Amino acid sequence: MTTTITTARAFLVDITVETERTDAVQSFVKQETIFVEVSTSDGLHGRGYAYTIGTGGRAVLSMLREHLLDVLIGQDADRIEAVWHRLFASTRATTTGAITSLALAAIDTALWDVACQRAGLPLWRLAGGFRRDVPLYDTEGGWLHLPIDELVDGALSSQRKGLSGVKVKIGKPNGQEDLERLAAIRDAVGSQFDLMVDANQSMTAAEAIRRARLFDGLDLGWIEEPLPADDIEGHVRLSRSTATPIAVGESMYSIAQFREYLDRGAASIIQVDVARVGGITPWLKVAHLAEAFNVDVCPHFLMELHVSLVAAVPNGRYVEHIPQLRAVTKKEMLIESGRAYAPESVGLGIDWDRDAIEDRIVA
Hints:
Enolase-like, domain 1; TIM Barrel; 2 domains; ten-stranded mixed β-sheet; 38% helix; Enolase-like_C_sf; Mandel_Rmase/mucon_lact_enz_CS; magnesium ion binding; Mandelate racemase/muconate lactonizing enzyme family protein; hydro-lyase activity
């Protein structure tokens, strides 16, 4: 018996950032959270979401309301692949790009929520079920505006909590200032603690190569987004020039982009973001593609959702700790001894606070 999608609703919620977040190119102003809620002919209800960090949320909402939700009604809720491809095909004029991918992600995650409910399984099991607990690293103590003493204190705090590492923003005007900040952290935490850096696409290839060499003695876990995401050739040159792994993914919006990076050896850590790549359906394809290249997946942001996906696949290496949904959820992600645990509750595993969400609707 076919189970059809009978209703679909989209709305926009603003969630205030929990702490000041700055990097080399921007500040995290607010989380514009685009929700999609669907109902099915057999009485199930799914909720999915995507996000922006301050702009474009209404454009995504418009794409959903003016086009995609109408296409969604009447579709077979159990045929997630078919639904995703039909919706994608209906938006050819705007693909590949952020607006379409974010809109698709909000729908796709809602359909996976329904699929989990029908199967009676949590997301991490339905998506693969490799293991339940995964390593965690912290980003909240590494923002660019923080002075050295606060960076060191944050890293030591994460280490005491049992986390496996921290990530620090780089991109100061002078590379020696970046080096000074990183060296102070490395001296404080020792050699058995992962230290990663993130340049947020702020450098040229020449400057990224220079700074990677400057950081050679620090044993960095990776250099994240050193160059603009469309500069694949620059990433190839950088990857060939350094032993430090190069991480990319949060600013990539299609499976094909990841394929080209992997095929050319332009990245050795994949940071695919479930919202920006178009949902759980393409996220899993990217993760399996990376596995075929023997490359780890360490997704960007959305820890409350990514914990289940990292747990689902064998090459899921890390979850990034940036709490952002506490204002609209009743329970936090489970963390024990520095490891994140995928929820065992049926569905996406996010315990939404319906009243708090409704109070924050802006469109």
